[in-house]
DNA sequence: GCAAAAGTGTTACAGTTACACCCATGG
DNA sequence: CCATGGGTGTAACTGTAACACTTTTGC
């Protein structure tokens, strides 16, 4: 097994690398997170995979999302890397956002389930802290970058988007101000589609993949 | 060698983990970064150490700073973790801020040197990109959190602090606005000390270790 | 025609920027 | 007494927050 050519270590320690993914979605009007049952510990854990030799960290994270949700695309962002001196493993943690409607695909045989972020089961080790941190980062991110639509289907109404923000941030937002800002930010664009249902039909919007966004963007929400 | 109890991997790959630290300081009125000569490659690299079994990631980063600067305390923050599928090593990158005046301590025998961030030598691999990213993160951080004083001695004048910000952000700031904001933010406090020299003596300030700061703090600078 | 959700502008306020002069010391 | 850097307040402006009614559809 080759060593990195750049750093020669004295006692050349080797580690297993675990890639964990905190997967968020929006179900039943609540922000929920995917957890994996670990009966041997009588507790739940954030789903993860050991890094294999032939995949990058992000590919492994994506594969982890696929394994537990059936989705082969998701918004992924690296969160933090934890290294315990005790056990010789290092944990690289990502967070992912997946749209709830696409989750009909059955889960893997593995015993994973969704939990609202405010009513979590007992978690192993420091996974509770990691979740808390992930949630904080998600809220921060939302405030100045507008990733909310990652939790929605490709086409969505502004009311749905606003509701997403309200659920995650945990506060009511002003409808007119919300629309003005989100449109001024230029990250979504209106489409000819409309959603019909109760009340007046809603114009549908979609993400503009070419949006630069976030670069030097002011905070969008208070 | 034990495996992590949480994730059982099929082909149980093991990796060397390299901890790199992008060390920034302020010398000669320029933001400078510490680099390590790698004559075999004819290029320079970000200083790093292989993670040993008995240290945490952050401890290893701190030790790396100590090795190359002689400083046993520094502001440290995790930046990003890079995983190449090619070579079987994973790189956890930190950035550090060290006050220039404390650097009189001689460097390790290793061939490390300081370079202004705008005139870098050839760098190995993706270290140039990593540096660019570290610099962006430093600027972001400075804008809303006020870590500038980490580059200054314990006691400093407001003019020195302002100059620090101007050098890093690359733009002139208004003296009165700067003072008002930095004081309102409540992260530094005035001390009885004064610095004498040319012109009127300056009141000296120091960091308030008890400052909560940054939590929900608005951006401090444009 | 009414219930239900979508859509739309303006005003008051707060925070930010721009700006110029006096002060304390050392030489 | 003068050169040098330290220190101070206000007014115009810009961005943000608060707010209520009209529109379109399904039933």
UniProtKB/TrEMBL annotation, chains A, B:
Highest taxon of source: Bacteria
A Pfam entry, by short name: WHD_NrtR
Coiled-coil blocks: none
Protein name: NrtR DNA-binding winged helix domain-containing protein
Source species taxonomy: Bacteria, Bacillati, Chloroflexota, Anaerolineae, Anaerolineales
Every NrtR DNA-binding winged helix domain range: 148-206
Gene3D superfamilies assigned to the protein according to its UniProt record, in alphabetical order: Nucleoside Triphosphate Pyrophosphohydrolase, Winged helix-like DNA-binding domain superfamily/Winged helix DNA-binding domain
Cited SUPFAM superfamilies: Nudix, Winged helix' DNA-binding domain
């Amino acid at each position: 097994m080759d060593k990195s050519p750049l750093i020669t270590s004295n006692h050349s320690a080797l580690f297993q690398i675990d890639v964990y993914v905190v997967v968020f979605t929006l179900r039943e009007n609540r922000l929920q997170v995917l957890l994996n049952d670990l009966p041997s510990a009588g507790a739940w854990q954030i789903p993860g995979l050991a890094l294999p030799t032939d995949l990058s960290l992000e590919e492994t994270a994506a594969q982890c999302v696929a394994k537990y949700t059936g989705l082969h695309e998701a918004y992924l962002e690296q969160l933090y890397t934890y290294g315990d001196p005790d056990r010789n493993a290092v944990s690289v943690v990502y967070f992912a956002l997946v749209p709830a409607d696409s989750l009909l695909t059955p889960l893997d045989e593995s015993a994973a389930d969704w939990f609202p972020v405010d009513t979590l089961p007992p978690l192993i080790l420091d996974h509770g802290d990691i979740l808390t941190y992930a949630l904080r980062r998600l809220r921060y991110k939302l405030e100045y970058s507008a990733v909310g639509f990652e939790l929605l289907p490709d086409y969505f109404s502004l009311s749905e988007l606003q509701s997403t923000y309200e659920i995650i941030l945990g506060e009511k937002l002003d409808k007119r101000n919300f629309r003005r800002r989100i449109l001024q930010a230029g990250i979504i664009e209106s489409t000819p589609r409309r959603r019909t249902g109760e009340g007046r039909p809603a114009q549908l919007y979609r993400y503009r993949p070419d949006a630069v966004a976030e670069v030097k963007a002011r905070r969008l929400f208070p």
